[in-house]
Amino acid sequence: MLHTFQKQLHRILLIAASTAVLAGCNSAPPTTGDKPSTTAATTTAASTDKKEGQKIRVQLPFLKQSLDAPLIWAIEKGYFAEQGLDVSYERGFGNSDTISKLGTGKYDIAFSDIYNAMEFNDKNPSDKIMAVAFYQSKAPFSIITFKQSGIKTPADLVGKKLGAPAGDGPRKLFPLFAKEVKIAPDSVTWDTMEPKLRETFLLQGKVDAVSGFYTSVIPSLIEGGKTMDDIKIFAYDEFGLDFYGNGILVKQDFMNKNPEVIKSFLKAYFKGMQEVVKDPSAALDLVVSTDQSKLMDRDAEKLRLKLAIERMYVTPEVESAGFGGADMKRLEKSITQTVTGFNLKPVKAADVFTDKFLPAKEQRMVPPSADRKPLI
């Protein structure tokens, strides 16, 4: 029997996969378009409170993708400018690298996960990084393989070769996944490669499975000629690891010196998120139009955005509590699991996340379903 996520993906991908097939050899690589829509600032990180046109430098978790639509929408529609902020962004090179660069002060705000931030904080307790919002209510952490591999359950991973970049979040969390599915963490071997080669290794049979974000891996495999019927996904959140996905992160020093800047940034960002959910097709077209390389593949980005909206952005929790926040009991559990998995010093949720900068709940609610247009 398929897991819930596998069933959802099958439904999501039926149309998207056929579109990708029709695109055929005219398809371009899906993750491109790393040019910011405004010139990136080159000065040191901002340290004063909000003022007209204050420059705020943001680092993305990876190449610009449709997942960044709320940010890009808020920039292009002037929502940040309305708040007195001049926001620019640069591509990232994975969540771990994004955390490292935020830690150096090169950027003011970063989009990444709290699990890498916790590891950073463990090594830099006097220079902590904090999450001020979660824009992904569910993490896209997963192990992905092909059904032809014979891997039907997590237990079938034993003795197999898995592939992922060294800093891949799901790879670093694999010991926790292994514990939940009752296999030994060292019962698999790992092959390390550059992020851009992960799916290629799987497609070429160099590894039996890969760890990664399903929003990254699945579109690439579909573009590589596979269909949903070929793919098997073990989503971590279906095996006891109900983690939050990426958040909006800042250094604690920046947070303490710039409370109004952070409040203004979040207000504009979640206004953008609401608009993306209301009209995802318009948001997708806007993201593609800002791709200066002109290599972004709309079909792949459409699939990516559809997965994100249906699985990560709009969840029952978000429908009830609004964008950006966290259920503290759920967050505490995932933090405790991360402390164990990463062998970190114990921390509490309040050491990693604060919701005090979020807009009022009514300003960040999910648009009513009647107001949401389909993604086409």
UniProtKB/TrEMBL annotation:
One of its GO terms (molecular function) is metal ion binding. InterPro entries: NMT1/THI5 (IPR027939), SsuA/THI5 (IPR015168). It comes from Chamaesiphon minutus (strain ATCC 27169 / PCC 6605). Pathway: Cofactor biosynthesis; thiamine diphosphate biosynthesis. It catalyses: N(6)-(pyridoxal phosphate)-L-lysyl-[4-amino-5-hydroxymethyl-2-methylpyrimidine phosphate synthase] + L-histidyl-[4-amino-5-hydroxymethyl-2-methylpyrimidine phosphate synthase] + 2 Fe(3+) + 4 H2O = L-lysyl-[4-amino-5-hydroxymethyl-2-methylpyrimidine phosphate synthase] + (2S)-2-amino-5-hydroxy-4-oxopentanoyl-[4-amino-5-hydroxymethyl-2-methylpyrimidine phosphate synthase] + 4-amino-2-methyl-5-(phosphooxymethyl)pyrimidine + 3-oxopropanoate + 2 Fe(2+) + 2 H(+). This is Thiamine pyrimidine synthase. GO terms for biological process: thiamine biosynthetic process. Residues 69-283 form the SsuA/THI5-like domain. Keywords: Iron, Metal-binding, Pyridoxal phosphate, Signal, Thiamine biosynthesis, Transferase. Homodimer. It comes from the Bacteria. Gene3D superfamilies: Periplasmic binding protein-like II. Responsible for the formation of the pyrimidine heterocycle in the thiamine biosynthesis pathway. Catalyzes the formation of hydroxymethylpyrimidine phosphate (HMP-P) from histidine and pyridoxal phosphate (PLP). The protein uses PLP and the active site histidine to form HMP-P, generating an inactive enzyme. The enzyme can only undergo a single turnover, which suggests it is a suicide enzyme. Pfam families: NMT1. The keyword Signal applies. Residues 27-52 are annotated as: Disordered. Belongs to the NMT1/THI5 family. Residues 1-23 form the signal peptide. PROSITE patterns: PROKAR_LIPOPROTEIN. Residues 37-47 have a biased composition (Low complexity).
